[in-house]
Structures are given as C-alpha cells and as structure tokens.
C-alpha cells in the first residue's frame, strides 16, 4: 500500500506536475533550480554535521577548524564531483584513530600532506576503475575494523568526558582509567552526562510532539543544551577554541620515515575508500526503499572514488581533516527527501557560512560535551546487528580478530590480520566458483556454479551488471554456501534491479525450478511444468504432495481433494482411492488424517461434504506448515494489540484476495468487505451501521493513516445495479444495493467527468460503473464525520484502487478532484 497516491480531499490543492508521470520532461532551456526538498535536506544535514565535525577534530587532536574545513570541502567538492548524488562527505569517526596516530607521530602539517597523497592514490584507483574490487573485502573485516575504531574512540573520549586527558592507545587508557576515576571533575561529568542523556532520550519522545521534535537532530540539541546549561551555571570548563583563520596551519612537505609515510598513506586511503564506497552502496539501498519512481541515478563507484580523491587533495591542502563518505549524514540526507546533489553542496555552503560568522557561538561549546557526543558515536559503531549477522554467516572469528587487532595494534595491522584470517577461512570453504552470463530469448541468465564467498563478489558483481536495466533476469545458484558479502551483493542488486522495472527470479540447483516451489514439483520437472501450464489431470494425492509454507499461492492447488463424481476413466483407474459408499456418500480420500475422516460424509447434516473437507484440510495444512512460523508474530500481536495503518474497504468477491494484492500480513490491514464495496452515506436509513461503525473505529480508535476503497472487474453487485435486480427493494440484497444508486447516477451524469482507465477506455458498462463506484464511495467517505475531521487535521489520506481480475493488474486512482483516472500500478512503483 505504500505506493498509493492519496486522492486529495476537497479544497486541497493538488500536486502540480510539469509533465505526465513516467514520461521525460518537455525539452526547453535548462535553468538552475534548487528543489525545496533539497533545501530542507541540506539544513538537516548541516545541523548534524556542525557539532560532529568539531567533535571529530577534537578527538583526533587536530585544530578544530580542520573539522569545519573537511565538512565544507566534502560537501562542495565531493558533492559536486562524486558518483553518488546523495552521499554526504566530510570528517568521519572511522578516521579518528588513524588521524590521531598520524598527528602524534608526524605533526599536523605532515598529516595534511598524507591526506593530499591519499587523495592522489584515490584518483589513481578511480581512474583504474577498480572501485568494485573494494567490495571484495569481507563485511566482517569492515565491521570489525569499525568496531575496533569505535572502542578506541569511546575509551579515549571517556577521559575527556571525565575531565582528564586521553592517552595514545587503548591499553594505556584502560591502565590509567582507575586513577582518572579518583580525580573526577564534577562539572565536566555533569555536562557529559547531560549530553548523553539527551542523545539517548531525544529519539524516544512519544506522541505527536516527539514526531515534530525529532525533526531537529539529537546531536545538535544535546550539544546546544549542554552549552546553554554550562553558560547559565557559570561552569569553568575548557571550551572550543577557534583561532583566527589567518593563523590556520596548511599542509607542509612530508617529514618522516619513508616506509612509515607510505604505510600512513595506504591506511588513510584504505579507510577513506572503503567507508565511502560502503556508504554509497547504503545510499542506493535507502533509495530503493522510497515509494514510487526513483529519480536519482544509481551510484557510480569509480566516479565516487575520483570525487573523494579530489576532496581529500583540497581538504589536505587547506589544512582540513581527511574526507570520506559518512553513512549517518548520507542516511539523514536520503530520509529528508533530497532528490539531487544540490542538497549535499548546500550543506557545504552552510558550513562555510557557520565557520565565518558563528565563531563566537561555537566557542561557547564545552569540550566535555563534544567528547560525550563522539563517545556515543564510538559506542554505536559496535553494532549488535552486525555481530549477529557475521555470526549467522559463520564469520565471527574474522570479526573478532579484526576488532582486537585494531584495538591492540592499530587499524592497518588489525585489517591485515582480519584479511589473513578471512582468506584462511575462505580457502577452507572454497571450491571452484564459475560465474557466466548469457541471454536466451530476451531473458538474461546468470549461472553460478560453486560456493559464493567474498572472493567471488567482483566477478558476481560484473556478471549481474551485464543485465540491462529493466530486463528479465534469472539467477541460477548451484552451490551449498553463500557468505555475507555475496549475499548482500546479490540482494542489493535484486532490490535495485526490481526497483528500476526489471524482474529477478532466483532458482535452485535444478535449472528452471524455483527454490520456493513444492517438493513434488521440484522432484518432477515435467509434472511441475504441467501444473504451471494448467495441464489436465487429477491433483496429486496427499501422499506425494507436501506444499511448503510461504510458497506461491498457485502451488497450493495440489491440496485439492478428488472430485465427488470423477470421469468414468478416472474412476476405474482409482478404485482403490474412490469407492462410492452404499448410501451414495463419498468416503474420505486416501491419505486423509483420521481426525478429519468424520467430515467426509456428504449426506450428514452435521458434517460438511467434500467442500467442507477441502476447507478442513486447508486448515490442517495451516496448522501443520504455517502456524509454527507465524505463531511468534501472532503472539506478539496478541500481547500488543492490533495497530494497522490502513483501512481497506473492498468487495466480498472470492476472487479478490486482499493480502495477496497488497503483499500484507497479520496486523497490516483493517479490512471491511461487503457486496459491491459500498459505503452508505451518513444519515441514510440502511438498517445496517456496520460499515459506519468500522470506519469510526478505524479512524478514531485505531488511528489509521489511510483508507482505501478497492473495486474490481466483473463485480456482480454492479451488474445487478445495471439490471432489473436494482429496482427491487424487497430483498435484503435489493435494499443493500440502494447505496450503489448514487454511483449509477454519477455514471449517467453527462456533466461529470467520467472515470476511466489510463491508456484505454472502459470495456463495457459494467466496468464504467465499477470505476464510477470507487469514486462515489470516496465521496461518501468524506461525508462521514470522523473521516472529515481526520482529513482536515491532515492525519488521513484516501485512496482509490481498481483490480482487474483477468489481468491480475491493479489500477490507482489519481486526479479524483478533476478528471478521475485510474493509472496502472507498475512493478517499479511497488518495489521496496
């Protein structure tokens, strides 16, 4: 339902489009424009980046202006030249340990020179187009490296938060921590605790007030609040000191051992490049979850390396910290609705303005508050989700060795140890992996034979990217193992490819057999093909068919029992399974559990016939196969109560399966079904207030955010309205169908714009009435008091859908206030 476009309430201004949806803009002279969503996103990112840039500079021991320089250069240079349009670059916590070590050993000017040299190496790597090779690094190594850096940052900043001075390494910091605890500065501790408390509690503010307040970044609120408290209380704490820009130190010539400088350049290049590329991939993932078409191009990783290299050259030359893509700011940029690289560049402009005009305010910030902020970031870098993931993929050893190596020895040494262990683990698992791509009949096939580990990711990535955008693809996996890196690569490509209009089918070991199909179809491909093509024949018996839960719905047809009166040829061939009893009733088919045998007597007034047996067998299959998988989720819903976000009002027609066409599950939809998907207008004497009661309960009690009216093709109620049955009110059906007469009047009203399907006219009068009925029932909905209040408060949206049963195609109502048009919902619109 996330792809639905609200049918606007009366009086609301519809969204204006400069060109029809899903079509290119009209040609004309291009003018530089900044979208409103880019402007708001840039402000959000700026408010996050400003305190973090100062805090990271403090943690490295660099001049605090260096953090602002890196943030501005990252926004302007990397934002303009990089290959990921929505990625936000700047100083990152992942580089804190590396930069602090460089400053301690070589000084600030040489550190800036190392940053410039690292940028040159990145330019060379981008020119060689080897960016995707960086994805061959196991995620366990990357996450282990970040976890080790996070622990190092947190332990070091703890000393500043307590009012002391950090040491050069984690072991040294832990050794002097007891002495530091005996010399606490209460004022520094209070400011640090206040900062951490705000960071922890700010995202948890409940209610509507919390929704509004959370639009302001928690980091900004924490630092600003601690600064205000320290100033009002008159606490004498060390504060931010920003010397005049005229005395700002720029890069100098490298000075130190050649081998040490080479190692420093390689370490900086490694961390900057890997973190930037991973952040760009994460940005593509977030973009794929946006509802509707994705207007932003997928990241060009080689160009991103070039942009990061140019940014590091400029930042190092101007005396700034190393620059890399920052996942936190990038995620904030995407979620804030940015649509182009203008948001990133505007954030850089805002940082420049702040660095020039807000120095007096910035110098009021206590260093203890910044230290607490950076310490919180370090703690979050040790992700329990990542630990569970690498454990599930049997890479916990690689993660642990990398983390401990970074903590005890350093970043480069820890990564080297992690790579060595990962290679050893991979060699232990690895057999030959062959990956090939071929096209047959317009369908692109990617065949993978052997085990998929991170060493095969570059070849897998290249093969997958040979599939053109929007094409149909089949990925055939013939292996027993897939590690985390390969799994993420395949999953990310599948989500991105389907989001851009393509289709992906992942098959198992036997060509042409889907992994999710029942065992009987997988064991007998010819039989499976017959089932898929609707070949005639009896359904498999209960002894040779076991449908697995969560398989496609069509596969469960093998649960059908045999017919009551089979054809003569079949009856003779199956005398052992179907023998009419003397009283004319049919016994239970072979394979029926004893507990169900009593329901097979067709003539028993208390027992259902063969239809009842089919229903009970379906319930039995649910208890056997599906209930164990959903029991935990249903138990949670039973404890917490239902919290649906959608009220879905549709027809009682058996062909309309709401959970199937909306891809929803337990707790997602509050469903109301009746004959004709009718909503009686308020005040009409219908003798049945069930629909109005359901609407009131959904809006006022459950607080649903949207209501959808869904009609469908071939609706019997609409046929009755068009025929003679519409004139008779003596039956319950006739009295109920009176509520559909306004729809009939709307269809016959020549002054009202007719509802129509995009791209074609309605097939007949029944389809025209079905479409008009959806529009009319939305009008009735708006007249209900609870709905009107929610619409006016902006808490509710109304949607109209039309499901064509024969096409298995959903159409979405747009422009209900002008000319009601039902647009075809495409796969790209529903991809999440």
TrEMBL record:
Subcellular location: Membrane
Chain positions covered by the region annotation Disordered: 1-29, 552-603
Residue ranges, compositional bias (Basic and acidic residues): 568-578
Membrane topology: Multi-pass membrane protein
Keyword set, alphabetical order: Membrane, Transmembrane, Transmembrane helix
SMART domains assigned: Pro_CA
SUPFAM superfamilies noted in UniProt: beta-carbonic anhydrase, cab (SSF53056), SpoIIaa-like (SSF52091)
InterPro entries: Carbonic_anhydrase, Carbonic_anhydrase_sf, SLC26A/SulP_dom, SLC26A/SulP_fam, STAS_dom_sf
Compositional bias annotation for Low complexity: 579-597
Purpose: Catalyzes the reversible hydration of carbon dioxide to form bicarbonate.
PANTHER family reported in the protein's UniProt record: SULFATE TRANSPORTER
Name of the protein this chain belongs to: SulP family inorganic anion transporter
Organism this protein belongs to: Streptomyces thermocarboxydovorans
């Amino acid at each position: 339902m996330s792809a639905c476009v609200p049918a606007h309430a009366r009086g609301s201004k519809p969204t204006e489009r400069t060109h029809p949806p899903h079509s290119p803009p009209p040609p004309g002279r291009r003018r530089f424009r900044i979208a409103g969503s880019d402007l708001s996103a840039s402000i959000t990112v700026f408010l996050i980046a400003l305190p973090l840039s100062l805090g990271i500079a403090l943690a490295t021991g660099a001049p605090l202006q260096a953090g602002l320089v890196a943030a501005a250069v990252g926004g302007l240079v990397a934002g303009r030249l990089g290959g990921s349009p929505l990625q936000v670059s700047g100083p990152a916590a992942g580089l804190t340990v590396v930069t602090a070590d460089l400053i301690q050993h070589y000084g600030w000017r040489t550190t800036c020179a190392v940053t410039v040299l690292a940028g040159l190496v990145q330019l060379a790597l981008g020119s060689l187009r080897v960016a995707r090779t960086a994805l061959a690094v196991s995620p366990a190594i990357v996450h282990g490296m970040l976890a080790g850096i996070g622990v190092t940052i947190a332990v070091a900043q703890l000393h500043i938060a307590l009012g002391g001075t950090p040491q050069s390494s984690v072991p040294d910091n832990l050794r002097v921590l007891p002495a530091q605890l005996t010399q606490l500065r209460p004022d520094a501790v209070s400011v640090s605790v206040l900062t951490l408390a705000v960071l922890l509690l700010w995202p948890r503010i409940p209610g509507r007030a919390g929704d509004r307040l959370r639009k302001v970044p928690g980091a900004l609120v924490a630092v600003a609040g601690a600064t205000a408290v320290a100033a009002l209380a008159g606490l004498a704490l060390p504060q931010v000191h920003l010397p005049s820009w005229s005395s700002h130190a720029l890069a100098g010539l490298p000075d130190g051992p050649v081998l040490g400088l080479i190692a420093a350049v390689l370490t900086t290049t490694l961390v900057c490049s890997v973190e930037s590329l991973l952040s760009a991939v994460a940005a593509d993932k977030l973009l794929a979850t946006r509802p509707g078409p994705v207007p932003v191009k997928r990241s060009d990783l080689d160009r991103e390396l070039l942009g990061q290299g140019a940014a590091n050259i400029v930042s190092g030359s101007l005396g700034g910290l190393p620059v890399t893509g920052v996942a936190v700011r990038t995620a904030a940029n995407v979620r804030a609705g940015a649509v182009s690289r203008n948001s990133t560049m505007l954030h850089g402009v805002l940082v420049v303005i702040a660095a020039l005009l807000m120095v007096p305010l910035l110098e009021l910030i206590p260093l203890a508050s910044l230290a607490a902020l950076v310490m919180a970031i370090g703690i979050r870098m040790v992700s329990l989700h990542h630990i569970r993931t690498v454990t599930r993929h049997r890479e916990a050893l690689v993660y642990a060795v990398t983390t401990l190596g970074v903590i005890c020895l350093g970043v480069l040494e820890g990564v080297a140890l992690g790579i060595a262990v990962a290679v050893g683990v991979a060699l232990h698992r690895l057999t030959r992996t062959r990956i090939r791509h071929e096209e047959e009949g317009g369908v692109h096939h990617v065949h993978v034979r052997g085990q998929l580990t991170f060493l095969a990711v570059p070849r897998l990535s290249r093969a997958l990217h040979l599939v053109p955008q929007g094409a149909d693809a089949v990925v055939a996996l013939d292996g027993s193992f897939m590690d985390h890196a390969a799994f993420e690569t395949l999953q990310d490509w599948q989500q991105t490819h389907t989001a851009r209009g393509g289709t992906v089918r992942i098959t198992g070991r036997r060509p042409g057999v889907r992994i999710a199909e029942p065992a009987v179809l997988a064991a007998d491909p010819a039989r499976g093909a017959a089932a898929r093509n609707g070949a005639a024949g009896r359904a498999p018996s209960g002894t040779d068919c076991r449908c697995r839960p969560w398989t496609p719905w069509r596969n469960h047809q093998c649960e059908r029992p045999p017919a009551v009166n089979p054809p003569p040829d079949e009856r003779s061939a199956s005398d052992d399974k179907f023998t009419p009893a003397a009283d004319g009733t049919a016994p239970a088919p072979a394979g029926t559990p004893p507990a169900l045998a009593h329901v097979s007597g067709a003539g028993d007034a208390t027992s259902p016939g063969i239809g009842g047996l089919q229903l009970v067998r379906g319930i039995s299959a649910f208890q056997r196969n599906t209930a164990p998988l959903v029991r935990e989720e249903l138990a949670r819903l039973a404890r917490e109560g239902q919290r649906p976000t959608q009220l879905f009002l549709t027809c009682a027609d058996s062909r309309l399966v709401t959970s199937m066409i909306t891809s929803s599950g337990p707790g997602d939809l509050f469903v109301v079904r009746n004959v004709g998907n009718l909503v009686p207008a308020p005040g009409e004497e219908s003798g049945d207030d069930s629909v109005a009661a359901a609407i009131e309960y959904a809006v006022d009690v459950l607080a649903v955010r949207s209501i959808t009216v869904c009609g469908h093709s071939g609706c019997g109620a609409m046929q009755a309205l068009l025929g003679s049955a519409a004139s008779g009110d003596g039956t319950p059906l006739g009295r109920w169908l009176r509520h559909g007469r306004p729809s009939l009047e709307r269809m016959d009203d020549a002054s009202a714009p007719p509802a129509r399907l995009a791209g074609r006219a309605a097939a007949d009068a029944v389809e025209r009435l079905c479409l008009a009925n959806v529009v009319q029932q939305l009008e009735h909905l708006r007249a209900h008091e609870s709905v009107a209040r929610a619409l006016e408060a902006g808490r509710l949206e109304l949607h109209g859908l039309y499901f064509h049963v024969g096409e298995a195609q959903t159409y979405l109502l747009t422009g209900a206030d002008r000319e009601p048009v039902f647009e075809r919902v495409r796969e790209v619109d529903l991809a999440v």
